[in-house]
Amino acid sequence: MAKVTWKLADGSEISAEVKDGLNLMEAATANNVPHIEGECGGCLSCATCHVFVDTEWYDRTGEVDEIEDTMLEMTDVEREDNSRLSCQIVASPELDGLILYVPEPE
Amino acid sequence: MAAPIVIVGAGQAAASLVARHVALESSQPLLLLGEESHPPYQRPPLSKKYLLGQLERERLFIRPRDWYADNGIEIRYDTRVDEIRPDAGEVVTAAGESIAYDKLVLCTGAHARALPGSLGGDLDGVHRVRTIDDIDRITPEFRAGRKLLIVGGGYIGLEAAASARTLGLEVCVIEMTERIMQRVAAAETSDYFRQLHSSHGVDLREATALKKLHAANGRVSAAEFDSGERIDVDLVLVGIGAAPNVDLAAAAGLDCDNGIAVDAQCRTSDANIYAAGDCASFVRNGARVRLESVQNAADQGDLVARVLAGEDATYDALPWFWSDQYDCRLQIVGLNQGFDRTVRRATDERCVSIWYYADARLLAIDAMNDPKAYAFGRIIIEAGKHPPAEQIADPATDLKAIAKS
Question: Across residues B241-261, what is the average pLDDT?
Fold first, then answer.
């Protein structure tokens, strides 16, 4: 299990205990985190699960492969150095306490 | 109590509608009626990861089963609607129950076309690929070494062929028209996938029609083609397209035209009834189109929730689509209808994209193992840019530079 916190642009936050092996797009939609859609089901075709990872945590969320890196070009909110597609981050005990920031589209 | 919004059909469109309804914190009650025993689930993995046993059933569900009740949504399983009574504002279930609606949304989807019984479509060992239950019937039959015939060289047939080869079955695919994927793609894309499947050992026969399936002991055992050739088979998958579920709507007097006809807000010819997803046809670029895709179902479902909440939104989303076969990822953006030329861009043998043009206008892109062509192409199309075909064909052209200029 990992406790994950999504921080929203309005200052509110949503936290959930996420089962190991689930990806954080699935966890976000199950917990009604706004702006995380995950239309393609996590197969790297839609870029609708974009998050900014707290910089303290970024390195622990794993490598960004070439496909994810390319898909990050078409996010609604412009990517930053700490951008990830949350369908590519898989919950594990090492991520207990993870903080994600949810981009707010205009 | 006020009558609820009633959704008939519990697929992707319904799931997205409900999710948006909850996100908008709409106070109107919502009732979801589904024919199956499952909450709304993703269909794309059915012919791929789920068939391969790489994804457990719960992870197909778009929201967890408990999510609906937790969010104040009533969902009824195993509930088939047999009739709409627009004048009374109610639907009637197969069990005979009348349910009043304030607004009705038809998310009835499409059904897999069946092989006629006269050709052997009713035999044991003949399957279709549309629902979780379909796949759960196929899985125990998918064993290495068995001989599988796939009827139809479209997405479903080709994805199932890839899954079957991965599991070690012997696979023959027959396609009635002159080439696989004829309905959806240009010849260059068909060429790519023909080569892909041939290289994985699929016996691919185009311009070949099924004459009849033959049985032994009540179960399919052989297939006869129009050429007269006969092959032994252990099982058959039928992937000959889908047809929209319009019977309910048509019987209620709603306008239908290759699907339930809707306007730009997904409203049918009855102002209190909406339709979204595979079952709905809408006007795009002056022509009525109907799309069978996650993107279309999700975006139309989302739109209906917004419209019902009072937003003045219209449907103009850019279509996109994907298909996974073996280790090849096909990604499509745009609608290629009306194209008069294509340009092939190849950065290497595996990374190929086909760009569809009508005159100088870029319409759509098929990208094979080329996420850059897909992602930057999508940005280019969304921005209304039309880069010259000659420029695209040159693999040295920097797509990102065009997209971000």
Answer: 98
Asked if B294 lies within 8 A of A26 by C-beta distance, the reply is no
Nearest residue to A89 (alpha-carbon basis) of A19, A22, A3 = A22
The token pair at B312 is: 């003045």
Q: In whole angstroms, what is the distance from residue A12 CA to residue A6 CA? A: 9
* CA B139 – CA A27 distance, rounded (Å): 28
User: Cα B106 vs. chain centroid, distance in angstroms?
Assistant: 17
Q: What's the mean pLDDT when you consider all of chain B?
A: 97
Angle at B160 between CA B159 and CA B163, to 5 degrees: 90
Out of A22, A30, A71, name the one closest to residue B371 (CB): A71
Strand-pairing partners, residue A49, are none
- Report the distance separating Cα B165 and Cα B171, nearest Å: 7
CA distance B162 to B69: 38
Beta-carbon separation of A41 and B400 below 8 A: no
Element holding B138 (H helix, E strand): helix B132-138
- Average pLDDT rounded to a whole number, residues B28-41: 97
Distance from CA of A43 to the nearest CA of B (A): 9
pLDDT at A105: 87
pLDDT average, residue stretch B298-302: 98
Task: Give the pLDDT band of residue A71 (cuts 50, 70, 90).
Answer: very high
A13-18 and B341-346 beta bridge pairing: unpaired
Contact B158, B193 (CB under 8 A): yes
Which pLDDT score is estimated for B218? 87
| pLDDT, mean of residues A91-102 | 98
Distance CA B120, CA B237 (A): 12
Confidence of residue B1 (pLDDT cuts 50, 70, 90): low
**Are the beta carbons of A29 and A38 closer than 8 angstroms?**
yes
Q: Decide if B270 contacts B260 (C-beta within 8 A).
A: no
Distance from CA of A100 to the nearest CA of B (A): 19
Confidence of residue B220 (pLDDT cuts 50, 70, 90): very high
Question: B132 Cβ partners below 8 Å, 6+ apart?
Answer: B36, B38, B41, B46, B50, B57, B60
Q: Residue range B58-82: average pLDDT?
A: 97
